[in-house]
Design brief:
By secondary structure, this protein is α/β, with parallel strands linked by helices. It has 3 domains: 68 residues, Orthogonal Bundle (Arc Repressor Mutant, subunit A), CATH 1.10.10.10; 118 residues, D-Maltodextrin-Binding Protein, domain 2 (3-Layer(aba) Sandwich), CATH 3.40.190.10; 106 residues, D-Maltodextrin-Binding Protein, domain 2 (3-Layer(aba) Sandwich), CATH 3.40.190.290. The protein has 11 helices and 11 strands. The strands form 3 sheets. Strands 3, 4, 5, 6, 9, 10 and 11 form a 7-stranded mixed sheet that branches. The protein has a two-stranded antiparallel sheet with strand order 1-2. A two-stranded parallel ribbon has the order 7-8. The longest helix is centred in the N-terminal third of the chain and has 27 residues.
Length: 308
């Protein structure tokens, strides 16, 4: 088996589809299908069940994929070591990150990192937050920015900061003057105020629902959106209240149109960088983690002692 064959079957397994894997590998679907068929013939086993969609590895396929992952990781680690021996600041880092968090983190991180390592190629895979740690464990990305990290045994983490949920109200709302300076806020004071909330299925919405339940509230939900920024801007325009992470609030161009109030430490989540345990970290990746940590903490870290 060649490295290319291993890379191809790993891509098929990751995507669950020959068509999607072919797009990632920049090959035709027919070429990739032929490569898979030839490899199965060479090995004398079927690697994927064709009767399911997405494609599911057979038992034999699972064994080959496990070995393929180990072989490719050993090869990648060797390349990293050789680059470090040559004191190279070249290479590529693949980063998993949610689309929204990419807009927060990457401008400040990359502006600092590229000054130190201008020849490193950075690529992003923007994906749903729930999938990011699995992508690291599966070798699809080198590292990922994650919230509510699972602290999985297969991963190492660089803790960044704790992110808190905040109630956001239009700055001219009558309630603002009566709760100014109150921390944490008694959320039940907002009973009757219309809310613009992130849709069900999002991590933030689950925490919102828990907060409403804890305060004995049934919120008046005016609108829902899949975008936290849309919720924030609708609240700024006076349509109602919203609950969003404080990361979104900091430096937002319409921050002056909103008053924000902490609702307590219980409604928060940790933010971290995840990478595979025991993997060889080349200089370029160590430098990225170090610079990302420094830049993100400087902008987003809170004083936890002020939020009870």
């Amino acid at each position: 088996m060649t490295d290319r064959q291993l890379e191809c079957i790993v891509a098929i397994a990751n995507h669950g589809s020959i068509t999607s894997a072919a797009k990632q590998l920049i090959v035709s679907q027919s070429s990739l299908s032929q490569l898979l068929g030839n490899l199965e013939k060479e090995l004398g086993v079927q690697l994927f069940s064709r009767a399911t969609s997405p494609l599911v590895p057979t038992y034999a396929g699972d064994q080959v994929l496990k070995a393929a992952g180990q072989i490719l990781e050993i090869k990648q680690s060797l390349m990293y070591k050789l680059e470090d021996l040559n004191h190279s600041c070249r290479g590529r880092i693949t980063i998993g990150i949610s689309q929204k968090r990419s807009s927060f983190f990457m401008p400040i991180v990359l502006s600092a990192y590229m000054k130190q390592c201008p020849e490193v190629e950075i690529s992003f895979i923007e994906e749903d937050q729930k999938l990011l740690e699995d992508m690291v464990m599966g070798g699809k990305v080198d590292l990922a920015f994650t919230t509510h990290p699972r602290w999985a045994d297969q991963l190492d983490y660089q803790y960044l900061y704790r992110e808190y949920l905040m109630l956001a109200l239009p700055s001219d709302h009558p309630l603002c003057s009566s709760i100014e300076g109150t921390s944490p806020l008694n959320l039940s004071l907002t009973s009757g105020i219309p809310f613009i909330l992130i849709h069900e299925g999002h991590d933030i919405r689950a925490m919102c629902n828990q907060a409403f339940s804890d305060f004995g509230m049934r919120p008046n939900i005016l609108l829902e959106s899949h975008s936290m920024d849309v919720c924030f801007q609708m609240a700024a325009c006076g349509l109602g209240a919203t609950i969003i992470p404080d990361t979104l609030v900091k430096g937002h161009p319409i921050r002056g149109h909103i008053k924000c109030f902490h609702i307590g430490r219980a409604y928060s989540r940790e933010v971290a960088i995840a990478y595979r345990k025991n993997m060889y970290l080349p200089f370029i990746m160590k430098e990225f983690i170090s610079i990302a940590t420094e830049q993100i903490i400087a902008k987003y870290q809170n004083d936890d002692t002020m939020i009870l």
